[in-house]
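ugh finaly. both done.
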Amino acid sequence: MVLEYPVQAESEGIKLKPEKMEADKLYQCIYEDKIFLFYKDDQELLHCYEVEDPAALKDISENPEGLEEILRKHAGFETNQS
């Protein structure tokens, strides 16, 4: 069974399926050269953030699995966890 990603960028805009989102997990999509981040908290509230940084957009486009580490890097947080 293939799970459908709950955030989809389409020509008409971004389509969300919050009922398929896990709480406390970050979801992302790229739409109109911007990164949109979606987060559903433990009270089922949906949060949306927009990232316009071109360097972050490039890094995330090349490595979407490294999203959280890339965001920390571009926010200036240390990522070394030895």
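ok and the 2nd:
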Amino acid sequence: MNVPESGFCSGCGHPLGLEPVGEAGALPCPACKQPLEAYRSGAGSLFDCSGCGGQFVEHLLLQEMLHRHEHAPLPDGAVRSSGRPEPRTAYVPCPECHSLMNRKNFGVISGVIVDVCKKHGTWFDLGELPRVLAFVAAGGLERSRARSAEDEARLRREARAQIAAVTPMTPHLATGHPSVAASLAQHLFDLLVH
């Protein structure tokens, strides 16, 4: 994934040295059907395709990689992004269970569309894993969490406004006890939000 003159890994930012040797694997590449090479770690495995350059990362290993990149920004001089592959719109099967994976924008705002198997891991087409790790190192997950919190707060405000608009129009509640109206309004709000 790195150009020959790179001093740092485009994915993690660490100085380049000898590449680890992968083990021949039994899992097929979901894009080109070649056997994937497995790189094992304590948390899980990364499977790499020498044909198309795609990578399948098990969930625990991906979480570890994201955590490491979120809390250790890329060093000066490290490449922050890599080339973009040709866009793909077709769904691909999980290398392990062969079920079609869901496509989603990583971190909601990254612009990197990845394929996710809920049970086994995430498929990254050529160049997507380094782009995701650069997004994380640049504070992307923090921005994504802030946006989600803003969206949730907006939905709560809208739900409260809808409840407030309905509550005064109910005649028996208007003449009843305020605690009954408030209790009903809170119950309706809880139903709308959850």
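summary for the 2nd one i guess: Residues 143-193 form one domain.
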